Amino acid sequence: MPGGLIELIRRANQTRKPEDSIALRAVVLAAVLVAALALVAQKAVAPATGLMLVVALVTAYWVSYRRRNEDNWHIKIALTLGAILALFRFLGQLSGIVTLDEVRFPLADLFLWVQVLHGFDLPARKDLNFSLGSSLTLMAVAGSISLENTFALFLIVYFALVIAAMALAHRSEVEERISDWALPRESQARPRWSFPLRDVGRAVAVTVVASVALFLVIPQPSGLRTFALPFSIGNGGGLFAGGRIANPGFGSEPSARGVGGSYYGFSDTMDLRVRGDLSDELVMRVRASAPAFWRGIVFGSYDGTRWVGDQSDPTPLGTGAPAYYPIEFRSLGPRQTISQTYYIEAEQPSVVFAAGQPDSVWFEGGLNIDKLGGLRTPSTLTPGTVYSVVSTRGSATKKELRTNPPEAIPEDIEKYLQLPSTLPVRVEELARRITAGDTNNYDRVRSIESYMRDNYEYSIDSPVPPRGRDAVDHFLFDTDVGFCEQFASATAVMLRSLGIPARVVAGYTPGSRSPFTGYYEVHASDAHAWVEVWFPRLGWYEFDPTFAVPPASSDLASLFPLARVFRAVAVFIAALMPAGMGSGLRYLVLALLLLTIAVGLWIASRKLRPRSRPVVPVVDRHAGPVTRALARFEDASRALGQGRKVSETAAELLTRTTRLEPASVDALRAFEQERYGSEGPQERDARAAVDELDRLSRELSSL
Amino acid sequence: MKRRPTRRAFVITGIGALLIMAAATAQAGWLFVLAAGVLGLVGGSFAARHRLGALEVIRSVPRRARVGDELRLGYAIRNSSKRGGAPMFTVEDTFGPFPTTTVGSERLGPGESSHVELVRMAARRGRFVEGTAVISSAAPFGLVRSKRRLEVPGEVTIVPRWVDLTTFPIFEPSSAPSEVLHERPRAGAGEEFVGVREFRPGDPLRSVHWRSTARAGNLIVREFEQEISSRAGIVLAGADHGTGPASSFETLVSAAASVGLYALSTGHPVHMARAGTDGVESIGDPSRHDLLDWLASATAGDVELQQLVDEALARIGGRGTVVLCVDSAGTTGTSIPAALDHIERAGARTILVRAKATSWDESTTDQPFDGHAFVPLITVERDRELGACLAV
Question: Interface pTM (ipTM) of the complex?
Answer without folding.
Answer: 0.74
